[in-house]
Design the sequence.
């Protein structure tokens, strides 16, 4: 294929994706609305794509840019003198490293645990799975959706190596009460990580306008590490996050070195060895192009869009706020006249993607909205389309999977979901063609309603089955 053919084919492939600009995809992507910032980011990404952060002496430019970004982030989150940080591939890697450092920082603890509110990001469960750290889940307040500090403190024991809080939580967009949680961790001699992957680059810019913001930075006694994603509200190309530690001693356990082979001595600050310099350079370029005053304006725009949407939800009878939003994320619930899964489908037909979130324990299913700076330009249009989507969802009624399908799915042992059983379930669900090949339906509400009715372990197994079928060569 020549260059023009490749460009044409790439455009054809991209045409089936959700849009990444314009504010109509309300999850996964972040749009500043600044074309020049996007352009300089792409230019830097391409210019440094072939560089390698594996050896900072070979590419000192990457080390200089990474240290500069860590320094800027540290000033935003009130980092103490002597703090350090690393650039990672995203929030999940930052969280993995925070858990790894906490585990290996306490080698005397044979069966380590970490205390999590039930709203902590799923990346902590991934870290638990990878590193053998038992998650101790503490229910949140059912109204505010914030972590319960007293219950968190009570869950800490002599096997606890880490306590976690969110600023804000992804699912509901609220800031946990970091102060008392970190104090309890410090009193027990335990690390406290604040997951500010979402809020780390936007909440600091809102403090002046909202002085009552819940404290969550290193200024809170007992906070030992904070994760901050740049490819979210710093609006940089994916994927780059920062993990900041209050001291180099706290970072030391997740550093890795190996000279026990005949090649070069492997030295890593993160999970990665080879690490493209593209995302680091792109982040450095975008951050310096927009500047702190520019970020303050973007944060205000995203916050305004969030509060406007919250007011719109209050006027749509079947919908309610799941929690009062503290930042730029919003979650809504629906009453018995409709369901969030059908509302999500109806929004998609109107050109908007909103993320359905299934129930978890006592927490109901919700519809999640991530509001970027550009979203304020279309607040009125979105409010109108949301009203129309809800009206259509009420007319259709709540999605309800057939009893046959629920029974068939519920009979499956998630530990032993073989190919034949999964194929049978796909056929009953109408998600397979004549050859048995997986076919995703245009409307996902019936499937989401089915998954919502199943235990989480079974839901995980079924969705992994779908991903496994999708990720096969053509």
Sequence:
């Amino acid at each position: 294929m020549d260059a023009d053919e490749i460009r044409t084919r790439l455009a054809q492939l991209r045409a089936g994706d959700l849009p990444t600009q314009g504010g109509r995809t309300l999850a996964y992507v972040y749009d500043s609305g600044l074309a020049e910032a996007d352009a300089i980011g792409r230019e830097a990404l391409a210019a440094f794509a072939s560089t390698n952060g594996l050896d900072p002496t070979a590419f000192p430019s990457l080390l200089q840019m990474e240290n500069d970004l860590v320094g800027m982030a540290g000033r935003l989150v009130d980092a103490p003198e002597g703090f350090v940080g690393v650039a990672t591939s995203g929030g999940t890697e930052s969280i993995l490293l925070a858990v790894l450092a906490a585990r290996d920082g306490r080698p005397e603890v044979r069966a380590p645990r970490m205390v999590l509110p039930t709203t902590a990001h799923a990346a902590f469960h991934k870290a638990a799975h990878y590193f053998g750290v038992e998650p101790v889940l503490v229910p949140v307040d059912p109204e505010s959706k914030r972590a319960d500090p007293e219950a968190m403190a009570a869950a800490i024991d002599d096997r606890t190596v880490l306590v976690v809080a969110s600023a804000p939580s992804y699912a509901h967009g609220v800031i946990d009460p970091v102060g008392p949680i970190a104090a309890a961790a410090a009193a027990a001699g335990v690390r406290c990580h604040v997951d500010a992957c979402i809020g780390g680059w936007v909440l600091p810019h809102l403090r002046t306008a909202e002085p009552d913001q819940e404290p969550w930075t290193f200024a809170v006694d007992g906070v030992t590490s904070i994760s901050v994603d740049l490819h979210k509200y710093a609006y940089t190309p994916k994927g780059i996050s920062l993990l900041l530690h209050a001291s180099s001693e706290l970072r030391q356990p997740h550093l890795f070195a190996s000279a026990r082979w005949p090649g070069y001595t492997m030295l890593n600050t993160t999970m990665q060895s080879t690490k493209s310099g593209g995302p680091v350079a792109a982040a450095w370029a975008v951050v310096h192009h927009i500047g702190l005053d520019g970020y303050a304006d973007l944060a205000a725009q995203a916050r305004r869009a969030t509060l406007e949407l919250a007011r719109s939800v209050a006027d749509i009878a079947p919908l309610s706020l799941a929690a009062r939003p503290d930042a730029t994320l919003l979650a809504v619930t629906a009453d018995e006249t409709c369901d969030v899964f059908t509302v999500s489908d109806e929004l998609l037909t109107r050109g908007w993607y909103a993320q359905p979130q299934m129930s978890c324990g006592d927490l109901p299913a919700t519809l999640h909205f991530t509001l970027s700076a550009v979203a304020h330009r279309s607040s009125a249009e979105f409010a109108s389309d949301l009203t129309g989507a809800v009206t259509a969802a009420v007319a259709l009624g709540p999605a309800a999977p057939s009893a046959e399908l629920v029974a068939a799915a519920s009979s499956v042992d998630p530990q032993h979901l073989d190919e034949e059983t999964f194929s049978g379930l796909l056929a009953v669900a109408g998600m397979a063609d004549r050859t048995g090949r997986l076919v995703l339906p245009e409307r996902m509400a019936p499937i989401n309603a089915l998954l919502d009715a199943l235990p989480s372990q079974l839901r995980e197994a079924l969705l992994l089955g779908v991903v496994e079928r999708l990720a096969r060569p053509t």
Notes: The CA atoms of residues 84 and 248 lie 6 Å apart. The first strand starts at residue 84 and ends at 88. The radius of gyration is 23 Å.
